[in-house]
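Worked example

This section walks through a single chain of length 451. The input is the sequence exactly as stored; nothing has been trimmed or padded.
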Amino acid sequence: MVPLPARRALLAAALGPAGRGRLPRHHAPAAAARPFSGAGGQEEAEGASRATAMLRHLLLKLRATGPVTVAEYMREALTNPGQGYYTRRGGIGESGDFVTSPEISQVFGELIGIWYISEWIAMGKPKAFQLVELGPGRGTLTDDILRVFKQLASLLSKCDVSIHLVEVSPKLSEIQALMLTGGKVQSNPEDKSAYMKGVSKTGIPISWYRDIQDVPPGYSFYLAHEFFDALPIHKFQKTEKGWREVLVDIDPDVPDQLRFVLSPSSTPATENFVQPEETRDHVEVCPEAGVIIQRLACRIEKDGGAALVADYGHDGTKTDTFRGFRNHKLHDVLKAPGTADLTADVDFGYLRKMAQGRTATLGPIKQREFLKNMGIDLRLQVLLQNSRDTATHEQLLHSYDMLMNPKKMGDRFNFFALLPHHRLADPDKKHKPESKSPLPPVAGFGELLLK
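Given that input, the structure is written out below as C-alpha coordinates.
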Protein backbone atom coordinates (compact mmCIF):
# COMPACT_ATOMS: atom_id res chain seq x y z
CA MET A 1 0.00 0.00 0.00
CA VAL A 2 1.25 3.48 -0.84
CA PRO A 3 2.10 5.30 2.45
CA LEU A 4 -0.81 7.48 3.60
CA PRO A 5 0.75 10.90 2.85
CA ALA A 6 1.82 9.73 -0.63
CA ARG A 7 -1.59 8.15 -1.21
CA ARG A 8 -3.32 11.40 -0.24
CA ALA A 9 -1.11 13.31 -2.68
CA LEU A 10 -1.72 10.79 -5.47
CA LEU A 11 -5.48 10.88 -4.88
CA ALA A 12 -5.54 14.67 -4.79
CA ALA A 13 -3.48 14.97 -7.97
CA ALA A 14 -5.46 12.34 -9.86
CA LEU A 15 -8.96 13.28 -8.79
CA GLY A 16 -8.71 16.99 -8.09
CA PRO A 17 -9.68 18.80 -4.88
CA ALA A 18 -12.99 19.91 -6.37
CA GLY A 19 -14.02 16.42 -7.40
CA ARG A 20 -13.39 16.84 -11.10
CA GLY A 21 -15.16 14.55 -13.54
CA ARG A 22 -18.73 13.36 -13.58
CA LEU A 23 -20.93 13.08 -10.55
CA PRO A 24 -21.70 9.53 -9.38
CA ARG A 25 -23.80 7.75 -11.96
CA HIS A 26 -27.54 7.58 -11.43
CA HIS A 27 -28.82 4.21 -10.30
CA ALA A 28 -31.82 2.77 -8.53
CA PRO A 29 -31.65 1.14 -5.08
CA ALA A 30 -30.77 -2.54 -5.04
CA ALA A 31 -30.20 -5.12 -2.35
CA ALA A 32 -27.71 -7.29 -4.17
CA ALA A 33 -24.88 -7.07 -6.64
CA ARG A 34 -27.14 -7.06 -9.68
CA PRO A 35 -30.94 -6.63 -9.18
CA PHE A 36 -32.62 -3.50 -10.67
CA SER A 37 -35.69 -2.47 -12.74
CA GLY A 38 -37.05 -3.85 -16.03
CA ALA A 39 -36.44 -3.27 -19.75
CA GLY A 40 -38.59 -2.13 -22.66
CA GLY A 41 -41.26 -4.05 -24.56
CA GLN A 42 -39.35 -4.10 -27.84
CA GLU A 43 -36.36 -5.77 -26.18
CA GLU A 44 -38.73 -8.30 -24.61
CA ALA A 45 -40.14 -9.15 -28.06
CA GLU A 46 -36.65 -9.44 -29.56
CA GLY A 47 -35.60 -11.57 -26.59
CA ALA A 48 -38.52 -13.94 -27.13
CA SER A 49 -37.66 -14.49 -30.78
CA ARG A 50 -33.98 -15.03 -29.93
CA ALA A 51 -34.97 -17.48 -27.21
CA THR A 52 -37.03 -19.42 -29.73
CA ALA A 53 -34.17 -19.48 -32.25
CA MET A 54 -31.54 -20.39 -29.64
CA LEU A 55 -33.78 -23.00 -28.04
CA ARG A 56 -34.52 -24.53 -31.47
CA HIS A 57 -30.79 -24.63 -32.19
CA LEU A 58 -30.07 -26.33 -28.84
CA LEU A 59 -32.93 -28.82 -29.18
CA LEU A 60 -31.66 -29.88 -32.63
CA LYS A 61 -28.15 -30.22 -31.25
CA LEU A 62 -29.26 -32.27 -28.24
CA ARG A 63 -31.37 -34.60 -30.41
CA ALA A 64 -28.34 -35.17 -32.62
CA THR A 65 -25.61 -35.52 -30.01
CA GLY A 66 -27.31 -36.25 -26.70
CA PRO A 67 -26.74 -34.28 -23.48
CA VAL A 68 -24.08 -31.51 -23.45
CA THR A 69 -21.92 -30.22 -20.63
CA VAL A 70 -22.97 -27.09 -18.74
CA ALA A 71 -19.84 -25.45 -20.22
CA GLU A 72 -21.03 -26.16 -23.77
CA TYR A 73 -24.52 -24.89 -22.90
CA MET A 74 -23.10 -21.66 -21.44
CA ARG A 75 -20.85 -21.16 -24.46
CA GLU A 76 -23.78 -21.48 -26.86
CA ALA A 77 -26.16 -19.32 -24.80
CA LEU A 78 -23.63 -16.52 -24.24
CA THR A 79 -21.36 -16.40 -27.29
CA ASN A 80 -23.09 -18.20 -30.18
CA PRO A 81 -22.28 -15.93 -33.19
CA GLY A 82 -25.92 -15.71 -34.29
CA GLN A 83 -27.98 -15.77 -31.10
CA GLY A 84 -25.61 -15.55 -28.13
CA TYR A 85 -26.42 -13.19 -25.26
CA TYR A 86 -23.11 -11.29 -25.38
CA THR A 87 -22.83 -11.23 -29.15
CA ARG A 88 -26.32 -9.81 -29.61
CA ARG A 89 -27.38 -8.14 -26.38
CA GLY A 90 -24.82 -7.70 -23.58
CA GLY A 91 -27.22 -5.98 -21.19
CA ILE A 92 -25.15 -3.90 -18.77
CA GLY A 93 -26.66 -0.92 -16.96
CA GLU A 94 -30.09 0.14 -15.81
CA SER A 95 -31.79 -0.69 -19.14
CA GLY A 96 -30.03 -4.06 -19.33
CA ASP A 97 -29.91 -7.16 -17.15
CA PHE A 98 -27.27 -6.36 -14.53
CA VAL A 99 -25.26 -3.44 -13.16
CA THR A 100 -21.56 -3.29 -12.33
CA SER A 101 -19.52 -1.25 -9.84
CA PRO A 102 -18.17 1.20 -12.48
CA GLU A 103 -21.78 1.96 -13.51
CA ILE A 104 -22.65 2.82 -9.91
CA SER A 105 -19.93 5.35 -9.15
CA GLN A 106 -16.99 6.89 -10.98
CA VAL A 107 -15.00 6.59 -7.74
CA PHE A 108 -14.62 2.84 -8.30
CA GLY A 109 -12.85 3.27 -11.64
CA GLU A 110 -10.80 6.19 -10.38
CA LEU A 111 -9.38 4.10 -7.55
CA ILE A 112 -8.57 1.28 -9.99
CA GLY A 113 -6.67 3.86 -12.07
CA ILE A 114 -4.79 4.93 -8.93
CA TRP A 115 -3.90 1.25 -8.32
CA TYR A 116 -2.19 0.94 -11.71
CA ILE A 117 -0.33 4.24 -11.30
CA SER A 118 0.76 3.13 -7.82
CA GLU A 119 2.10 -0.18 -9.18
CA TRP A 120 3.78 1.59 -12.11
CA ILE A 121 5.62 3.83 -9.63
CA ALA A 122 6.50 0.91 -7.33
CA MET A 123 7.96 -1.00 -10.29
CA GLY A 124 10.30 1.84 -11.20
CA LYS A 125 8.20 3.80 -13.72
CA PRO A 126 8.81 1.69 -16.87
CA LYS A 127 9.02 3.73 -20.09
CA ALA A 128 5.91 2.09 -21.57
CA PHE A 129 2.94 0.02 -20.47
CA GLN A 130 -0.15 -1.48 -22.01
CA LEU A 131 -3.42 -1.44 -20.08
CA VAL A 132 -5.25 -4.58 -21.18
CA GLU A 133 -8.87 -4.99 -20.11
CA LEU A 134 -10.63 -8.33 -20.57
CA GLY A 135 -14.37 -7.99 -21.26
CA PRO A 136 -14.59 -4.19 -20.88
CA GLY A 137 -18.41 -4.01 -20.81
CA ARG A 138 -19.55 -0.57 -21.94
CA GLY A 139 -16.05 0.89 -21.55
CA THR A 140 -17.03 2.79 -18.40
CA LEU A 141 -14.17 1.44 -16.27
CA THR A 142 -11.52 2.20 -18.91
CA ASP A 143 -13.04 5.67 -19.35
CA ASP A 144 -12.68 6.40 -15.62
CA ILE A 145 -9.10 5.08 -15.62
CA LEU A 146 -8.23 7.24 -18.62
CA ARG A 147 -9.52 10.29 -16.77
CA VAL A 148 -7.11 9.51 -13.91
CA PHE A 149 -4.27 9.08 -16.42
CA LYS A 150 -5.14 12.49 -17.87
CA GLN A 151 -5.09 14.11 -14.43
CA LEU A 152 -1.64 12.59 -13.89
CA ALA A 153 -0.41 13.48 -17.39
CA SER A 154 2.67 15.24 -16.02
CA LEU A 155 3.64 12.10 -14.09
CA LEU A 156 3.07 9.89 -17.16
CA SER A 157 4.57 12.36 -19.66
CA LYS A 158 7.63 10.20 -20.35
CA CYS A 159 5.66 6.94 -20.45
CA ASP A 160 4.19 5.45 -23.65
CA VAL A 161 0.69 4.32 -22.60
CA SER A 162 -1.69 2.30 -24.82
CA ILE A 163 -5.08 0.66 -24.21
CA HIS A 164 -5.90 -2.86 -25.42
CA LEU A 165 -9.45 -4.20 -25.08
CA VAL A 166 -10.30 -7.90 -25.43
CA GLU A 167 -13.96 -8.03 -26.49
CA VAL A 168 -15.94 -10.71 -28.36
CA SER A 169 -19.22 -8.76 -28.62
CA PRO A 170 -19.58 -6.59 -31.75
CA LYS A 171 -22.38 -4.65 -30.06
CA LEU A 172 -20.37 -3.90 -26.92
CA SER A 173 -17.24 -2.95 -28.89
CA GLU A 174 -19.33 -0.34 -30.73
CA ILE A 175 -20.56 1.06 -27.39
CA GLN A 176 -16.98 1.08 -26.06
CA ALA A 177 -15.70 2.88 -29.16
CA LEU A 178 -18.40 5.53 -28.85
CA MET A 179 -17.65 6.13 -25.17
CA LEU A 180 -13.86 6.11 -25.41
CA THR A 181 -13.16 7.66 -28.83
CA GLY A 182 -16.41 9.38 -29.77
CA GLY A 183 -16.86 6.70 -32.44
CA LYS A 184 -13.72 7.64 -34.37
CA VAL A 185 -12.31 4.19 -35.05
CA GLN A 186 -10.82 2.27 -37.93
CA SER A 187 -12.23 -1.20 -38.56
CA ASN A 188 -9.98 -3.91 -39.99
CA PRO A 189 -6.72 -1.97 -39.53
CA GLU A 190 -3.46 -3.05 -41.17
CA ASP A 191 -2.47 -4.69 -37.91
CA LYS A 192 -4.48 -7.89 -38.43
CA SER A 193 -4.23 -8.98 -34.79
CA ALA A 194 -6.61 -6.12 -33.85
CA TYR A 195 -10.07 -5.87 -35.43
CA MET A 196 -10.51 -2.20 -34.58
CA LYS A 197 -8.30 0.75 -33.63
CA GLY A 198 -8.82 4.29 -32.48
CA VAL A 199 -7.53 7.09 -30.27
CA SER A 200 -9.15 7.98 -26.96
CA LYS A 201 -10.58 11.43 -26.31
CA THR A 202 -7.48 12.00 -24.18
CA GLY A 203 -5.12 11.05 -27.03
CA ILE A 204 -4.17 7.48 -26.04
CA PRO A 205 -4.22 4.75 -28.74
CA ILE A 206 -6.82 1.99 -28.25
CA SER A 207 -6.97 -1.41 -29.98
CA TRP A 208 -9.63 -4.12 -29.88
CA TYR A 209 -8.98 -7.89 -29.98
CA ARG A 210 -11.08 -11.05 -29.85
CA ASP A 211 -8.54 -13.08 -27.85
CA ILE A 212 -5.89 -12.25 -25.28
CA GLN A 213 -3.35 -14.12 -27.40
CA ASP A 214 -3.78 -11.44 -30.09
CA VAL A 215 -2.63 -8.68 -27.70
CA PRO A 216 1.02 -7.85 -28.52
CA PRO A 217 3.64 -8.82 -25.92
CA GLY A 218 5.14 -6.13 -23.71
CA TYR A 219 5.04 -4.67 -20.23
CA SER A 220 1.33 -4.82 -19.41
CA PHE A 221 -1.17 -4.16 -16.66
CA TYR A 222 -4.18 -6.47 -16.99
CA LEU A 223 -7.68 -5.83 -15.72
CA ALA A 224 -10.52 -8.35 -15.44
CA HIS A 225 -13.61 -6.88 -13.77
CA GLU A 226 -16.60 -9.24 -13.78
CA PHE A 227 -14.96 -11.19 -16.58
CA PHE A 228 -14.17 -14.62 -15.16
CA ASP A 229 -17.69 -15.14 -13.75
CA ALA A 230 -19.16 -15.36 -17.27
CA LEU A 231 -16.73 -18.02 -18.56
CA PRO A 232 -18.17 -21.53 -19.10
CA ILE A 233 -18.08 -23.88 -16.12
CA HIS A 234 -18.27 -27.66 -15.76
CA LYS A 235 -20.45 -28.89 -12.90
CA PHE A 236 -19.81 -32.12 -11.01
CA GLN A 237 -21.82 -34.05 -8.42
CA LYS A 238 -20.52 -36.70 -6.02
CA THR A 239 -22.68 -39.86 -6.05
CA GLU A 240 -22.51 -43.31 -4.48
CA LYS A 241 -20.77 -44.45 -7.68
CA GLY A 242 -18.24 -41.62 -7.64
CA TRP A 243 -18.09 -38.24 -9.38
CA ARG A 244 -20.56 -37.61 -12.20
CA GLU A 245 -20.79 -34.58 -14.47
CA VAL A 246 -23.97 -32.49 -14.55
CA LEU A 247 -25.26 -32.25 -18.14
CA VAL A 248 -28.04 -30.41 -19.98
CA ASP A 249 -30.60 -32.48 -21.88
CA ILE A 250 -34.15 -32.30 -23.29
CA ASP A 251 -36.92 -32.87 -20.74
CA PRO A 252 -38.76 -36.01 -22.01
CA ASP A 253 -41.98 -34.88 -20.33
CA VAL A 254 -41.87 -31.41 -21.92
CA PRO A 255 -40.06 -31.79 -25.29
CA ASP A 256 -39.44 -28.05 -25.78
CA GLN A 257 -37.81 -27.57 -22.38
CA LEU A 258 -34.40 -28.38 -20.96
CA ARG A 259 -33.35 -30.09 -17.74
CA PHE A 260 -30.23 -31.11 -15.83
CA VAL A 261 -29.16 -34.76 -15.80
CA LEU A 262 -26.15 -36.64 -14.41
CA SER A 263 -23.73 -38.45 -16.72
CA PRO A 264 -24.24 -42.24 -16.42
CA SER A 265 -20.49 -42.72 -15.96
CA SER A 266 -17.35 -40.69 -15.48
CA THR A 267 -16.55 -38.16 -18.25
CA PRO A 268 -13.13 -36.87 -19.44
CA ALA A 269 -13.87 -33.62 -17.59
CA THR A 270 -14.57 -35.55 -14.38
CA GLU A 271 -11.20 -37.28 -14.64
CA ASN A 272 -9.29 -34.07 -15.45
CA PHE A 273 -10.93 -31.32 -13.41
CA VAL A 274 -12.05 -32.83 -10.09
CA GLN A 275 -9.11 -32.86 -7.68
CA PRO A 276 -8.47 -36.13 -5.75
CA GLU A 277 -8.45 -34.21 -2.44
CA GLU A 278 -11.84 -32.55 -3.11
CA THR A 279 -14.10 -32.64 -0.02
CA ARG A 280 -17.21 -30.88 -1.40
CA ASP A 281 -20.05 -32.95 -2.86
CA HIS A 282 -20.78 -30.46 -5.69
CA VAL A 283 -18.03 -28.66 -7.60
CA GLU A 284 -17.89 -26.07 -10.40
CA VAL A 285 -14.68 -25.80 -12.41
CA CYS A 286 -13.86 -23.23 -15.11
CA PRO A 287 -10.96 -24.61 -17.17
CA GLU A 288 -11.08 -21.59 -19.51
CA ALA A 289 -10.36 -19.31 -16.52
CA GLY A 290 -7.41 -21.55 -15.65
CA VAL A 291 -6.00 -21.24 -19.18
CA ILE A 292 -6.35 -17.44 -19.16
CA ILE A 293 -4.68 -17.15 -15.74
CA GLN A 294 -1.82 -19.33 -17.02
CA ARG A 295 -1.40 -17.02 -20.02
CA LEU A 296 -1.46 -13.91 -17.83
CA ALA A 297 1.05 -15.44 -15.43
CA CYS A 298 3.37 -16.40 -18.30
CA ARG A 299 3.17 -12.90 -19.80
CA ILE A 300 3.81 -11.18 -16.46
CA GLU A 301 6.71 -13.54 -15.72
CA LYS A 302 8.26 -12.83 -19.14
CA ASP A 303 7.40 -9.16 -19.84
CA GLY A 304 6.58 -7.72 -16.39
CA GLY A 305 3.46 -5.93 -15.21
CA ALA A 306 0.56 -7.05 -13.03
CA ALA A 307 -3.01 -8.30 -13.24
CA LEU A 308 -5.95 -7.18 -11.13
CA VAL A 309 -9.06 -9.38 -11.00
CA ALA A 310 -12.29 -8.09 -9.42
CA ASP A 311 -15.25 -10.44 -9.27
CA TYR A 312 -17.66 -12.17 -6.96
CA GLY A 313 -16.38 -15.50 -5.84
CA HIS A 314 -14.92 -17.69 -3.10
CA ASP A 315 -11.68 -19.37 -2.12
CA GLY A 316 -12.59 -22.95 -2.99
CA THR A 317 -15.47 -23.27 -0.54
CA LYS A 318 -18.76 -22.85 -2.43
CA THR A 319 -20.66 -25.50 -4.38
CA ASP A 320 -23.65 -24.59 -6.59
CA THR A 321 -23.42 -20.94 -7.73
CA PHE A 322 -24.59 -21.19 -11.38
CA ARG A 323 -27.38 -18.66 -11.99
CA GLY A 324 -28.95 -16.34 -14.54
CA PHE A 325 -29.89 -12.63 -14.56
CA ARG A 326 -32.48 -10.96 -16.72
CA ASN A 327 -33.95 -7.48 -16.19
CA HIS A 328 -31.98 -7.30 -12.92
CA LYS A 329 -33.77 -10.34 -11.50
CA LEU A 330 -32.70 -13.93 -10.99
CA HIS A 331 -33.60 -16.01 -14.04
CA ASP A 332 -33.86 -19.79 -14.54
CA VAL A 333 -30.61 -20.72 -16.31
CA LEU A 334 -32.36 -23.26 -18.58
CA LYS A 335 -35.22 -20.99 -19.73
CA ALA A 336 -35.06 -18.72 -22.78
CA PRO A 337 -31.35 -19.37 -23.45
CA GLY A 338 -29.64 -16.46 -25.18
CA THR A 339 -31.73 -13.78 -23.45
CA ALA A 340 -30.16 -13.84 -19.96
CA ASP A 341 -26.72 -13.38 -18.47
CA LEU A 342 -25.39 -16.70 -17.13
CA THR A 343 -22.79 -16.57 -14.41
CA ALA A 344 -21.04 -18.53 -11.66
CA ASP A 345 -18.89 -17.45 -8.71
CA VAL A 346 -15.16 -17.36 -9.40
CA ASP A 347 -13.06 -19.91 -7.53
CA PHE A 348 -10.02 -17.83 -6.55
CA GLY A 349 -8.34 -20.86 -5.01
CA TYR A 350 -8.42 -22.47 -8.46
CA LEU A 351 -7.02 -19.30 -10.08
CA ARG A 352 -4.18 -19.25 -7.56
CA LYS A 353 -3.39 -22.89 -8.33
CA MET A 354 -3.48 -22.21 -12.09
CA ALA A 355 -0.86 -19.44 -11.77
CA GLN A 356 1.45 -22.42 -11.08
CA GLY A 357 3.86 -20.30 -9.06
CA ARG A 358 4.94 -18.29 -12.13
CA THR A 359 3.79 -15.14 -10.35
CA ALA A 360 3.03 -14.14 -6.79
CA THR A 361 -0.68 -13.89 -5.96
CA LEU A 362 -2.46 -11.61 -3.50
CA GLY A 363 -6.02 -12.03 -2.25
CA PRO A 364 -8.82 -12.59 -2.58
CA ILE A 365 -9.64 -9.57 -0.40
CA LYS A 366 -13.18 -8.20 0.06
CA GLN A 367 -14.07 -5.22 -2.13
CA ARG A 368 -14.82 -3.01 0.89
CA GLU A 369 -11.35 -3.71 2.33
CA PHE A 370 -9.62 -3.09 -0.98
CA LEU A 371 -11.44 0.19 -1.66
CA LYS A 372 -10.91 1.37 1.93
CA ASN A 373 -7.19 0.66 1.60
CA MET A 374 -7.21 2.59 -1.69
CA GLY A 375 -8.65 5.69 0.00
CA ILE A 376 -12.34 5.63 -0.92
CA ASP A 377 -13.25 7.31 2.39
CA LEU A 378 -10.92 10.21 1.62
CA ARG A 379 -12.40 10.56 -1.87
CA LEU A 380 -15.96 10.47 -0.50
CA GLN A 381 -15.16 13.27 1.97
CA VAL A 382 -13.84 15.48 -0.86
CA LEU A 383 -16.91 14.84 -3.01
CA LEU A 384 -19.31 15.46 -0.09
CA GLN A 385 -17.59 18.72 0.76
CA ASN A 386 -18.02 19.86 -2.84
CA SER A 387 -21.58 18.62 -3.44
CA ARG A 388 -23.88 21.63 -3.61
CA ASP A 389 -27.29 20.00 -3.41
CA THR A 390 -29.05 17.44 -1.25
CA ALA A 391 -29.76 15.04 -4.14
CA THR A 392 -26.07 14.77 -5.06
CA HIS A 393 -25.14 14.40 -1.39
CA GLU A 394 -27.61 11.52 -0.97
CA GLN A 395 -26.48 9.93 -4.23
CA LEU A 396 -22.86 9.95 -3.08
CA LEU A 397 -23.76 8.22 0.17
CA HIS A 398 -26.00 5.73 -1.65
CA SER A 399 -23.25 4.87 -4.18
CA TYR A 400 -20.75 4.44 -1.34
CA ASP A 401 -23.19 2.15 0.49
CA MET A 402 -23.70 0.00 -2.63
CA LEU A 403 -19.95 -0.46 -3.08
CA MET A 404 -19.01 -0.90 0.59
CA ASN A 405 -21.97 -2.41 2.46
CA PRO A 406 -21.12 -6.05 3.32
CA LYS A 407 -24.70 -7.08 2.47
CA LYS A 408 -24.54 -5.46 -0.99
CA MET A 409 -21.30 -5.37 -3.01
CA GLY A 410 -18.84 -4.92 -0.13
CA ASP A 411 -18.45 -8.59 0.73
CA ARG A 412 -19.84 -10.14 -2.46
CA PHE A 413 -16.98 -8.92 -4.63
CA ASN A 414 -13.30 -9.71 -4.18
CA PHE A 415 -10.00 -8.42 -5.52
CA PHE A 416 -7.17 -10.73 -6.53
CA ALA A 417 -3.80 -9.85 -8.08
CA LEU A 418 -0.95 -11.48 -9.97
CA LEU A 419 2.47 -9.80 -9.61
CA PRO A 420 6.07 -10.68 -10.43
CA HIS A 421 7.77 -12.39 -7.50
CA HIS A 422 10.40 -9.65 -7.31
CA ARG A 423 7.63 -7.07 -6.69
CA LEU A 424 6.99 -8.39 -3.18
CA ALA A 425 9.53 -7.88 -0.44
CA ASP A 426 10.43 -11.23 1.16
CA PRO A 427 10.89 -10.68 4.91
CA ASP A 428 12.63 -14.06 5.25
CA LYS A 429 15.57 -13.05 3.02
CA LYS A 430 18.25 -11.92 5.44
CA HIS A 431 21.01 -11.49 2.84
CA LYS A 432 21.90 -8.30 0.98
CA PRO A 433 21.44 -5.96 3.96
CA GLU A 434 23.05 -3.22 1.87
CA SER A 435 20.26 -3.40 -0.75
CA LYS A 436 17.77 -0.61 -1.31
CA SER A 437 14.92 0.08 1.11
CA PRO A 438 12.15 -2.55 0.97
CA LEU A 439 9.59 -2.30 -1.81
CA PRO A 440 6.34 -0.54 -0.89
CA PRO A 441 3.44 -2.88 -0.11
CA VAL A 442 0.94 -3.43 -2.92
CA ALA A 443 -1.83 -0.81 -2.85
CA GLY A 444 -5.24 -2.09 -1.82
CA PHE A 445 -3.85 -5.31 -0.33
CA GLY A 446 -2.14 -3.57 2.59
CA GLU A 447 -4.30 -5.24 5.22
CA LEU A 448 -3.30 -8.69 3.98
CA LEU A 449 0.40 -7.87 3.99
CA LEU A 450 0.25 -6.59 7.55
CA LYS A 451 -1.29 -9.77 8.94
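What to look for: The chain has a mean pLDDT of 86.
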